[in-house]
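Data availability (excerpt). The following record was deposited with the supplementary files.
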Amino acid sequence: MAQGASKVLRSYTSGGWRVGEAEGAPLHDAVTGAEVARISSAGIDMAAALEHGRAVGGPALRELTFHQRAALLKALASHLREHREELYELSARTGATLGDSKFDIDGGIGVLFAYSSKGRRELPNDTVYVEGNVEPLSKGGTFLGQHIATPLRGVAVQINAFNFPAWGPLEKFAPAFLAGVPSLIKPASQTAYLTEKLVELIVESGLIPEGSLQLISGSAGDLLDHVTGQDLVSFTGSASTAQKLRAHPAIVRNSVRFNAEADSLNCSILGPDAKPGTAEFDLYVKQLVTEMTVKAGQKCTAIRRAFVPAELLDDVAEAAGERLTKIKIGNPSNPDVRMGALASLEQREEVRRSLKALQGAGNIVFGDPEQVELIDADAEKGAFISPVLLKADPDRAEPHEVEAFGPVSTLMPYTSVEQVVDYAARGQGSLAGSVVSGDAVFARDVVLGVAPWHGRLLVLDADDAKESTGHGSPMPALVHGGPGRAGGGEEMGGIRGVLHHMQRTAVQGSPAVLSQVTGRWVEGAPRATDGVHPFRKSLAELKIGDSVVAGPRQVTDADVAHFAEFTGDTFYAHTDEDAARENPLFGGIVAHGYLVVSFAAGLFVSPEPGPVLANYGLENLRFLTPVKPGDALTVTLTCKQITPRENADYGEVRWDADVTNDDQESVAKYDVLTLVSKEKR
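Predicted structure:
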């Protein structure tokens, strides 16, 4: 991207790149103060952008299965990883060190990889998601219910904050794309030049369908006026802005799904056991300083309130001060620099104003918000500020209400579990909290006490420290969001984030209808027995409902005795007639459950080489009726679900196995999982 002042950032809408009609507001380098670009969305047709996503992007995405979308996410992640250096270069202009840039850029790419993996492992290779079990709605089994989820037919409007111009868009885009819903990204202006480059790399890759990703650089204008009940709005930023957006007339009128991730006063709690010299004490101090200085403290998950046992308050302040003294601040291009600048001079002034409010409740024990020693940087031109650590009275309101969104944290004392739980709750809802303690009982009490006010909690101790990702690192598999002040929303959380972009619908009907709707055989639906054993059919030939009935095979006393001796499972119910007779559930010798399963496998197997490559597991196994010597077993095996694997010559087949006795009672039910060739071998 050209660095001249004349450049106006582009938007990508309705299939093309567009430049705002106005001259635009200047965006400045956070380190040097030089103009990076200008930004304007004047003249961009917001209604047309939304309609393009609905009419072009949505249909193209919905033609793909979850697995196909997951494969595209993986390809896109690999493509972006090859272009990280271009993104790092721009990221430095936001004030980020290389470590900060990796946290943002590599973290965002990691979310794409994570959702690709989850999509392939946890979602079907289909366009509909079946949720939960079939619900019986009648005695005869002819009327059932099933929940399904299908993609909303709108656009996911994603309004992001300035502090993570790469991770922010990607962590919202990944679950929306996997769900089959197109995204429209509106980044915060201060760092939008990095997001523009990110979107440029994605668009130029040609990997994703047209219309599945659009970008608005600049003001959102009348964008929200045009959202419908099929659209979604996700916002990251201040709680006050979230409140205004949530009350937008179109959002209220159309009941638009609105997800907010807002600023919060996250806390970290040191346990009474973690005295100086312990691993947990050192972990607490190290984590506190890390959260203050990574991204210059501009993280919505950073530690703002540090609760410490009263008797350890001075020890923690001293140890943290020693670590903070070693933090070199300045131009991120200098390899000695550990902390860069805030995103803008305006942001620095906002932090200073907040600090003045916090000082009303306490005092600064490290740092000076007005002066800072820099490396290769000018304090007048760059948005630099010293890390600031305060001590405050936790019974004052300010530490629980005022957030300085920078390298600022406040130490506060507590004297009991009940008291620290109360203090933590005064933040009125947080994205993240942490407990640092080697005492699992203390950790449990605190976690259960503060959980209602937190979206995520980390318990850090010597056991997990080496592999812990830290207090401030949201993970794709876990929810990111929190109650109350934190916005009341949830993002990511694995498949939970995908389902947020889908409509859950309860479908009622007969077993045959539900099988057609869901693509899964449902008990009571027709079975097909055409004389060809289903194990002789390739994936291309196999159909839902194909089945085989095998048996009967009688279970004998000798079978039970042999199985007990052969396996070593000599539980009395299988070997001691007198003791077994006293068991109210059995009333005599019974066959091992696993003997029943083994006999069933012997009945339904087709032993010759063929399309079935492997049996890789059983699921949902239940033993329903005791099997006694003399009982004859019959098994019905039915093709329940077919999942072709992308870029492989085989797929997965789930079979329903129902083992019955002479009286047609089910003695065992379970799913058999096999790998089957797509074509005959």
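Summary of structural features: Residues 98-122 form the longest helix (25 residues).
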